[in-house]
Design a protein that fits this description.
This protein is mostly beta strands. It has two domains: 85 residues, Beta Barrel (Elongation Factor Tu (Ef-tu), domain 3), CATH 2.40.30.60; 98 residues, Roll (SH3 type barrels), CATH 2.30.30. The chain is 4% helix and 35% strand. The protein is built from two helices and 13 strands. The relative contact order is 0.19. About 9% of the residues have low confidence.
């Protein structure tokens, strides 16, 4: 797929409010690498209405309270007011590079999960972020994202192989605490926990 055809589908931030009087907006980063904003030449804004606008980035500054963006065509506070709650998106090919064996959450969502014995646990529909490790949620299991459990990730083939502990998924039911929401997450530039 050429760059022109590639969709602007990877969320890297969300506009929270106008900043100052010269048309800047404050953005809450939805990426593990907020400094990546400083090198952007253009982004796609998905407005709350669903409308998408590709705009040039004049300036980006990372601050302790988020990122400040100055965008082409927006000269004052009144002009950027309509951008409040807009998603800031880039093309997947623009994602920051990761070391081998590390994956973006948007690469994990949608993978088909199989046990080492070949049992299909369903598709990853959600990634629960937690301090200890992420948890991959499928229709029939909650899979801890740790090396001892996740044996293989093949993004190209769209599959993951796991070694579940004996009590996990024995009856095809989820075990443990929090249940997934059952909804697909919007892709965001967040690194999945190391497998």
């Amino acid at each position: 797929m050429s760059e022109r055809e590639e969709p602007w589908s990877l969320v890297i931030g969300r506009v929270t409010a106008p900043f100052g009087i010269k048309g800047e907006v404050r953005v809450r980063p939805e990426t593990d690498f907020p400094e990546r904003f400083e090198g952007l030449e253009e982004v796609c804004l998905e407005l709350p209405s669903g409308e998408e606008r590709v705009v040039g980035v004049v300036q980006a500054r990372v601050t302790p309270k988020g990122v400040l963006l100055k965008l082409e065509g927006y000269g004052d506070r009144e002009a950027v007011e309509c951008l409040r709650r807009s998603f800031v998106k880039v093309r997947p090919s623009m994602a920051a590079p990761l070391p081998e064996g590390r994956y973006w959450v948007h690469e994990i969502i949608g993978l088909r999960v199989f046990t080492e014995e070949g049992r299909d646990l369903g598709e990853v529909t959600e990634v629960i972020r937690s301090p200890g490790n992420d948890v991959y949620v499928t229709e029939s299991a909650m899979v801890p994202a740790v090396r001892e459990i996740v044996r293989e990730v093949d993004v190209e083939k769209g599959r993951m192989v796991v070694a579940l502990p004996p009590e996990e998924g024995a009856e095809g039911e989820r075990t443990g605490g929090q249940q997934g929401s059952g909804r697909r997450q919007a892709p965001a530039e967040r690194e999945a926990a190391e497998k």
